[in-house]
């Protein structure tokens, strides 16, 4: 996918850049990332790894639903009480999932992501947050009414922790399911990571349309990487049942001061699924 966008009064200036790269072209990916604020690494995860991580995280999710895991792995900041799917109790999120899935940990700390971090952070010592706030998160989004699924509206990751010394950083999302209009997808404003980090800069509130925004779709096994200052939101899925399911693993790498173990999370924006 090629991205070409320009914002008001030259606040966002993005030339035409390819946003999709193979894992063998990290230099190209880093160059585009600098301009766009995000890139997609295609076919970054093998079929074997995807099958294994599905099994491991399904087991962890079932244990969380059945009360076999404590608050370390689930939070009402993300999951609302009483959520169901097809009449059964359900949880959309397993937090700190790298403690429950060896494959999730291996992928989050893979040579691919550590190399990307080294390049993006200009050789600064980088670290994976797999222990504080929510750590690395598994999400199994279901949009049925009973699921009480809530999406996060327009935001930059920076805004939930503006005073932290952990920055700079980038987020990674490992896609287990392909994304589409049926199950929802990422919306971004290319180049917005170069703006001041305030909503007024792009007029982004909740899920409103934003000038210059583009949809970003991923295939199974792709990894999306985005800058901590990039403005992004989730598009609504339109399908119920398993057709509307969207599963992925997401986390963040940083190059600033590591978090304390008890470091919390600030406010963020959520809204109903439909």
General description of the model:
With 274 residues, the chain is α+β, with helices and mostly antiparallel strands. The protein has helices spanning 26-36, 47-65, 102-108, 111-120; strands at residues 2-6, 13-18, 20-21, 38-41, 84-85, 88-89, 93-94, 127-128, 137-141, 150-152, 169-175, 186-188, 214-216, 223-227, 232-234, 246-254, 270-272. The protein has a single domain, classed as q2cbj1_9rhob like domain (Jelly Rolls). It is built from 4 helices and 17 strands. Helix 1 (26-36) links the parallel strand 3 and strand 4.
Topology (SSEs and partners):
Elements lengths: L1 E5 L6 E6 L1 E2 L4 H11 L1 E4 L5 H19 L18 E2 L2 E2 L3 E2 L7 H7 L2 H10 L6 E2 L8 E5 L8 E3 L16 E7 L10 E3 L25 E3 L6 E5 L4 E3 L11 E9 L15 E3 L2
Parallel strand pairs: 3-4
Antiparallel strand pairs: 1-2, 4-14, 5-6, 7-9, 8-16, 9-16, 10-17, 11-14, 11-16, 12-13, 12-15
**How many strands appear in the DSSP assignment?**
17
CATH superfamily membership: q2cbj1_9rhob like domain
Helix proportion range: 10-25%
The first-to-last residue Cα distance is 28 Å
CATH topology: Jelly Rolls
Cα gyration radius (Å): 18 Å
From the spread of the alpha carbons, the general shape counts as globular
Strand content: 15-25%
Tell me about the largest β-sheet. 8 strands, mixed
**CATH architectural designation:** Sandwich
Structural class: alpha+beta
Compute the average pLDDT.
87
